UniProtKB/TrEMBL annotation:
Membrane-spanning ranges: 28-46, 52-71, 78-101
Name of the protein in question: Integral membrane protein
Source domain of life: Bacteria
Species annotation: Streptomyces albiaxialis
Source species taxonomy: Bacteria, Bacillati, Actinomycetota, Actinomycetes, Kitasatosporales
UniProtKB keywords: Membrane, Transmembrane, Transmembrane helix
Length: 102
């Protein structure tokens, strides 16, 4: 039964496009949210980098909220929520270490 064997290659984008349709804008917002969240949470480790962590955290929270609003698949929502959580933690720690203004 050769027709029963599905041959598909794995790619990370296929996890985001689980409905089979491409969503470039939604995937971009989810990826940017994840990137901003990672930068915010990594830079929040050092109190001297509070400007970077608080501003990238704030930008990550805003893009994450918009990514949740326009998301079309569960994979996009998952990536956006993980990035949104990391951006929120980075933002809060950045504000605790000195805030948005030097």
């Amino acid at each position: 039964m050769a027709q029963a064997v599905r041959r598909s290659h794995f790619s990370p984008v296929s996890l985001l496009n689980s409905d089979g349709k491409p969503h470039p804008v939604e995937n971009s917002f989810a990826a940017v949210t994840m990137l901003l969240g990672a930068v915010a949470i990594i830079t929040s480790i050092w109190p001297g980098l509070h400007l970077i962590s608080s501003w990238t955290g704030l930008a990550g929270v805003l893009t994450g909220m918009w990514a949740q609003f326009i998301s079309a698949t569960t994979g996009e929502r998952f990536v956006a929520i993980i990035g949104l959580g990391a951006a929120g933690v980075g933002f809060y720690l950045g504000v605790a270490h000195g805030g948005l203004i030097p």
